[in-house]
């Protein structure tokens, strides 16, 4: 089984990044192969809402997002991690999700298959405050993203009051829960 981790944090070694690593470690403990994509290291542009779109659900812009599309299509499960910024997902996360507008159009407007198999997924997030509505906002966007690419929203993990880089390492409960999410994704 291959599990793909998608990190939407702008910080390498940031809290969402470390939490994602723990999820992937849990998956490996059950025999899964894992791979992680760090969105901030990719070269891609935001959705351009192209006048001419492919009716196949594929994006016409040729940049590093083509790798993301391919890896998601071949994965057996997805783990998406993003910190909360300004009450929602990070810019990197939202930029990636917006690039699935072509798949959304094909699936919901044209009523076509988009080439993504049905797989389970998990969403994990951290934030500096304790505002539940920020996690709710992030969850809503992640769920829409998952629905578009046929990922069943199976698990979530939200860790509040995590601010400084590396603070997640002081929260053994979040780390243990992240490991368990990864283990549960393996079937």
H/E element sequence: EHEHEEHHEHEH
Count the strands?
A: 6
CATH topology, what is it called?
A: Rossmann fold
**CATH class descriptor:** Alpha Beta
The rounded Rg comes to: 16 Å
Globular, elongated, flat, extended or rod-shaped: what is the shape? globular
Rounded mean pLDDT is: 96
Strand content: 15-25%
What count of domains describes the coordinates? 1
Structural class: alpha/beta
What summary fits the major beta sheet?
Answer: 6 strands, mixed
Unreliable residue runs: none
Based on the coordinates given, report the CATH architecture: 3-Layer(aba) Sandwich
Q: Could you give the distance between the termini? A: 8 Å
Number of helices: 6
What do you see in this structure?
- Helix content is 39%, strand content 21%.
- The protein has 187 residues and is of the alpha/beta class.
- It has a single domain (2-185), classed as Flavodoxin domain (Rossmann fold, 3-Layer(aba) Sandwich).
- Strands 1, 2, 3, 4, 5 and 6 form a six-stranded mixed β-sheet that branches.
- A hairpin with a 2-residue loop joins strand 3 (77-85) and strand 4.
- Helix 1 packs across helix 6.
- It is globular.
How is this fold's topology laid out?
Blueprint: E1 2-7, H1 15-29, E2 33-38, H2 65-74, E3 77-85, E4 88-89, H3 91-98, H4 101-109, E5 119-126, H5 132-148, E6 151-159, H6 172-185
């Amino acid at each position: 089984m291959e599990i793909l981790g998608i990190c939407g944090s702008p910080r390498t070694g940031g809290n969402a990044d470390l939490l994602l690593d723990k999820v992937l470690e849990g998956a490996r403990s059950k025999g899964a192969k894992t791979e992680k994509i760090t969105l901030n290291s990719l070269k891609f542009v935001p959705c351009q809402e192209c006048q001419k779109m492919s009716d196949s659900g594929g994006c016409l812009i040729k940049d590093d997002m083509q790798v993301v599309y391919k890896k998601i299509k071949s994965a057996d499960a997805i783990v998406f991690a993003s910190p909360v910024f300004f009450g929602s997902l990070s810019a990197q996360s939202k930029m990636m999700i917006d690039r699935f507008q072509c798949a959304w159009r094909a699936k919901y407007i044209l009523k076509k298959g988009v080439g993504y198999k049905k797989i389970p997924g998990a969403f994990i997030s951290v934030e500096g405050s304790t505002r539940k509505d920020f996690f709710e906002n992030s969850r809503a966007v992640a769920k829409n993203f998952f629905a578009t690419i046929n990922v069943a929203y199976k698990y979530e993990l939200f860790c509040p009051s995590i601010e400084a880089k590396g603070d997640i390492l002081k929260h053994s409960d979040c780390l243990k829960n992240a490991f368990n999410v990864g283990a549960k994704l393996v079937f």
